[in-house]
Specification:
six-stranded mixed β-sheet; single chain; four-stranded antiparallel β-sheet
């Protein structure tokens, strides 16, 4: 939905993508098919969006959920439309609410969420909660990153990719060998 001013107030109108793009496609533009009032003028205020994607290397599917915290000094409260896409491509409409500058989302391996209707020029910090079974490998390809810091741009989708890997577990065996200059024939005495 777009908001447009016609000189007499604000009108909200639906818009469609006439080229067949999906909501999660990045880098495409929509065409507004509406006119307002007698003046024929329309002003569109494009919003920004954030898309967070979760990938776990070496794991197919999985039911483990990963929690993400989104913080912003600019978005202190408000509810925004979102679309969660499952690993199989199924899209589900949902919403994300900011309270005191913080929102949380959960994703499984292969899932993504697109949060729309955000203002351009706002700064967001996105962090993933630590888990005992997985280690964070990279954020947007950066292996030393511990959080994503993005500034939204009106009319654009800011992409954030979190990649994890399972923690490698194994056995550890420790053997202690004591050697003494007297060989095997010495004794230790305790007082």
């Amino acid at each position: 939905t777009l908001k447009a001013s016609n000189g007499r107030g604000i009108a909200t109108m639906p818009f469609v993508d006439i080229e067949g793009h999906g909501l999660n496609d990045i880098g495409h533009h929509y065409v507004v098919g509406a006119t307002l009032g007698n003046n024929g003028r329309i002003t569109v205020y494009p919003s920004a969006a954030i898309k967070i994607t979760k990938t776990v290397e070496g794991v197919q599917g999985g039911n483990d959920e990963f929690s993400f915290r989104i913080t912003s000094a600019n978005e202190t409260s408000g509810t925004y439309s979102a679309v969660k896409t499952a690993a199989n491509g199924t899209e589900t409409k949902t919403s994300i609410s900011f309270f005191r500058g913080t929102a949380t989302v959960s994703l499984k391996n292969g899932e993504s969420i697109l949060i729309t209707g955000l203002s351009g020029g706002n700064t967001y910090r996105i962090t993933e909660s630590e888990t005992v079974d997985y280690v964070l490998k990279s954020i947007n390809g950066n292996v030393s990153a511990t959080e994503a810091v993005i500034i939204t741009e009106a009319g654009a989708v800011s992409q954030v990719d979190f990649v994890n890997a399972p923690v490698v577990k194994g056995d550890l065996r420790v053997t202690k060998v004591v050697e003494h200059t007297l060989g095997d024939s010495y004794q230790l005495t305790h007082n």
